[in-house]
Amino acid sequence: MVKNISVIGTGYLGATHAAGMAELGFDVLGVDVDPEKIEKLSRGDLPFHEPGLPELIRRHVDSGRLRFTADISEAGDWADVHFVAVGTPQLPGSNGADMTFVDAAVTDLARVISKDSLVVGKSTVPVGTARRLSRLLAEQSRQDVDVALAWNPEFLREGLAVQDTLRPDRLVVGTERPEDVDTLREVYAEALGRETPWIATDFETAELVKVAANAFLATKISFINAFSEVTETVGGDIRTLADALGHDTRIGRKFLNAGVGFGGGCLPKDIRALQSRVSELGLDHTMRFLSEMDQINLRRRERAVTLSEQMLGGDLEGRRVAVLGVTFKPLSDDVRDSPGLDVANRLYVAGAHVAVYDPEGSANAAKRFPRLDYCDTLAEAVGSADLVVLTTEWDEFKALTPADLEGLVAQRRFLDARNVLSSAQWKDAGWDFAQLGRFY
Ligand code: UGA
């Protein structure tokens, strides 16, 4: 019977998963190599912004069901199931994923496990990793304990992490033995009671479902953004095009929002890691379209900059640009590979004075690009601006009206790089108004 669960790695994924498992009624131990992080989490203090998660962690720390440690050996004789949720970042100077943390976590675990248990990988990994780790686990663990590996990819979205963990769209598990499927069915009994689709398969399929899902999502975004390049040239309304496409239930409207493109810690890195992996497998040609998508995506950022320049009469030097939104998406403070932050920095490099406002992301953004002018309020950022550029669709930006900015800006110029405002409303109010994906 599964009673105790450990989660190795308490970053974004691990902290959410640990809290989610406690919410499901298990006793949970979160393990991380960073003692400072452990100390903070033990107080219910999160090093990142995720709605609802601090409350969930605090509740279960207080109830005694969730605790954190920097000592992995505590997990070894205690947990029935160990989830591995450490990062697999892009390797510097390469498209491949850095597997150092996953390998270290599994090796460390193998050395301390002293009771029969299941090690479950959740990190996003190149296909073939689980089979390799299964061998590693067998080699490194004690011969008198029964330890096996399973793979259970995670599909949570930042900003909706708690909901996605507790109410997933589907559960995918890759295993080598039927009894490990049963163990995971026990862990996820609550979701299965709600008839959450359950896919029990082999290691390779489980690993591939994850990267295929992210590659598909990135493809959808890039597909509509490629059409943006057409509508910007010939005319046409990209949002209406997406709406009309989306009514075809085979296509669906989600992830067809044209704009400044995708970013974050997952989609960009995952499509690059996938290309790198298929290339290792001698299948370069198979995923060549992914590199095209990456290019379409990066061209959107460039387009936001050249359009800004065009709106300002061809020169950014010395002009004041207000950038609204530097997180890669709303409800997050994550600026990894953020299109908005990249655009802000490119505008700065081209000579503009860039004032930034973001409800949550300024502190993280300032660590990467300290020279931008980070403002505490929207009014401060747009004050005396020659151009306002909306790059992340936070609710407070989506609700903006021309009247809100009247009297603040120096020039009535607005670039909606996320296609979320009403062009007619702004143009009627006398603004020079442009959107990515529309003829200007
Ligand atoms: C993504 C996937 O959606 C999750 O299912 C997956 O679990 C996660 O990666 C992961 O691998 O961990 P996330 O990175 O949180 O989740 O963000 P998304 O909501 O997918 O958004 C990614 C980017 O695409 C954002 O920059 C967003 O602004 C952009 N986007 C999204 C668009 O430009 N247009 C759209 O229509 C949708």
Automatic annotation (TrEMBL):
Lineage top rank: taxon: Bacteria
UniProt cross-references to Pfam families, sorted A to Z: UDPG_MGDP_dh, UDPG_MGDP_dh_C, UDPG_MGDP_dh_N
Annotated catalysed reactions: UDP-alpha-D-glucose + 2 NAD(+) + H2O = UDP-alpha-D-glucuronate + 2 NADH + 3 H(+)
SUPFAM superfamilies membership: 6-phosphogluconate dehydrogenase C-terminal domain-like, NAD(P)-binding Rossmann-fold domains, UDP-glucose/GDP-mannose dehydrogenase C-terminal domain
Keyword annotations: NAD, Oxidoreductase
EC id: 1.1.1.22
Listed name of the protein: UDP-glucose 6-dehydrogenase
Source organism per UniProt: Nesterenkonia aerolata
Taxonomic lineage of the native organism: Bacteria, Bacillati, Actinomycetota, Actinomycetes, Micrococcales
